[in-house]
Structures are given as structure tokens and as C-alpha cells.
Write a structure and sequence with these properties.
Elements: E1 3-10, E2 19-25, H1 32-42, E3 46-53, E4 56-62, E5 67-68, H2 73-85, E6 94-98, E7 101-108, E8 111-117, E9 122-123, H3 130-134, E10 140-143, E11 148-151, H4 155-160, H5 165-171, E12 176-181, E13 189-195, E14 200-203, H6 207-221, E15 225-230, E16 236-243, E17 246-251, E18 253-261
Parallel strand pairs: 2-3, 4-6, 11-12, 13-15
Antiparallel strand pairs: 1-2, 1-18, 3-4, 4-5, 6-7, 7-8, 8-17, 9-10, 10-11, 12-13, 13-14, 15-16, 16-17
């Protein structure tokens, strides 16, 4: 038998929406080179590798080109699969040891809620050429540990973005979150996320970006509980609760495909 691999649509209530992640539930350690090759072969924004480790699971995330420090949608997908496969009881909390420390996920009704670090952006000048690469005037720019955050004038501007990905890849070490207030009262803010330097032109729904978006819009709107709508072509909804130096990110997941790696 080869290694099983499962594709899960995360931050999705039905198939073919949200953000697809590939997940390998491992029984033994595997090499980093092999993990990167699998991620390149899957060619999704993230492939997750989950290995039992005492009372937790080691979790690593790879784009088609690099390993990343933090990923929300593939963590949600991994937790979903641990419960679905019976490796955890549905009442048990999923505990993940990662490059960003201990992350947890638990079921709350039909939703999965993850406990992640809050990473507020610090205001800074936008990198030279960023507005031109995005093709939109920038109203606010900030930087946090992973990415730049830019605020633009409207949801219409966010939705209309057609970035120059070659220029973005040169300008940015990882990615940029573009956001505005939502025009729809059902949501507090909208966003899109671009990371061509990591092999991802546009990520459909980015959990880690909401670690920054939550504190940003919480401060702007004076709210601790928010609903974000990532308005990519696939789109997805992320419920964000800002709790001091942590954020709770909530969403759904749907198993889409199961397969087996022969190499």
C-alpha cells in the first residue's frame, strides 16, 4: 500500500468552493525533499503532512515551491481529516506542533474553530512599486511578520484587482493582503491574498492572513468578533474572534477526493 493523500476543501460548506488542501496522514517520518516533491506534484496552494507525536501531531505545510511558517486552511483540513478518519474522536481537540508553535482546533457544532496567534500589522510605507504592481491606489500599508497588508478604498476595488504577478514576485518576500470594508452588511471586511514569490499567484482563502486581518479590522471597527469574506474566484468565509494575542478562526471543511501515492 502506498501513502494515502486526501484533498479537502477548507473554509467551504460544499465541494469546489473555499480553498483546497492536500493532506497526508503519515504513520512514520518522511524526508523533507519528498514532502516538497509531493507538494509540487499536487500543485495546490498548500499540502499538509501530519505525523503523530505523543499527545499531539507534527504538522508541516508546503506550497509547490517552499515550506511555510503558518497556514490556516491546511490546518483546518488536517483537523477535519483527523476526526473523519477516526484518528481523533470528534470531542477531542486536535493539537498540532508547528513552526509557529502549538496550534489547536476543535469542533463547535458543524464548524471547526482554530486557535492561532494574532499578528497585528505595523503601519509602514508601501514598498516602492507596490501600488503600480497591484494597479490600485493604496490608502493604508502595514507589515507583519509574514506579509504586507494594504487597505484600498472599496470592495469594488478589491474585486477588480488584476495584479502584475511578475512584479509582485520581485517586490515581496512572501505575499500581500489587499482589503477593504465590506459593501455587504453580512460581512465586516473583504480581502484577497497574492503570494507569487511562493508559487501562489492568488490563494483562494487564507487562514493565516486573518491572523492579521482580525486585529486590523477589530481595531478599525471596534469589534472583537468579525466575519471576513475572501473574494477570490472560489471565495470563502472566515469567522474571526480576536482574543488578546490569539485569534480564533472558524470555518467548515468538505472532503473532496481520496487517493494513494505510489512513490
Amino acid at each position: 500500500m502506498g501513502q494515502s493523500i486526501v484533498i479537502v476543501d477548507a473554509f467551504a460548506e460544499k465541494p469546489f468552493t473555499g480553498n483546497p488542501a492536500a493532506v497526508c496522514l503519515l504513520d512514520h517520518p518522511v524526508g523533507e525533499e519528498w514532502m516538497q516533491l509531493v507538494a509540487r506534484e499536487m500543485n495546490l496552494s498548500e499540502t499538509a503532512f501530519v505525523l503523530p507525536d505523543r499527545d499531539a501531531f507534527r504538522l508541516r505545510w508546503f506550497t509547490p515551491t517552499v515550506e511555510v511558517e503558518l497556514c490556516g486552511h491546511a490546518t483546518l483540513a488536517s483537523a477535519h481529516l483527523l476526526w473523519e478518519s477516526g484518528r481523533l474522536r470528534e470531542t477531542e481537540k486536535a493539537r498540532f506542533q508547528t513552526r509557529s508553535g502549538l496550534l489547536t482546533a476543535q469542533r463547535e457544532g458543524d464548524r471547526i474553530v482554530m486557535d492561532f496567534p494574532a499578528v497585528a500589522a505595523q503601519a509602514c510605507p508601501a514598498p516602492a512599486g507596490l501600488a503600480e504592481a497591484l494597479g490600485v491606489p493604496i490608502g493604508y500599508a502595514g507589515k507583519y511578520v509574514f506579509d504586507y497588508l494594504v487597505e484600498v478604498e472599496s470592495e469594488t476595488a478589491v474585486r477588480a484587482l488584476q495584479p502584475n504577478f511578475e512584479r509582485l514576485a520581485v517586490l515581496l518576500p512572501r505575499g500581500v493582503i489587499v482589503t477593504s470594508r465590506s459593501a455587504d452588511p453580512a460581512f465586516d471586511f473583504v480581502s484577497r491574498f497574492f503570494a507569487p514569490a511562493c508559487g501562489i499567484q492568488e490563494d483562494p482563502v487564507t487562514g493565516s492572513a486573518h491572523c492579521c486581518l482580525g486585529p486590523h479590522w477589530g481595531g478599525r471597527l471596534g469589534k472583537l468578533d468579525l466575519i471576513g469574506h475572501q473574494v477570490s474566484a472560489r471565495g470563502g468565509i472566515v469567522r474571526v474572534q480576536v482574543r488578546g494575542d490569539r485569534v480564533h478562526l472558524g470555518g467548515h471543511a468538505v472532503t473532496l477526493m481520496r487517493g494513494e501515492l505510489s512513490a
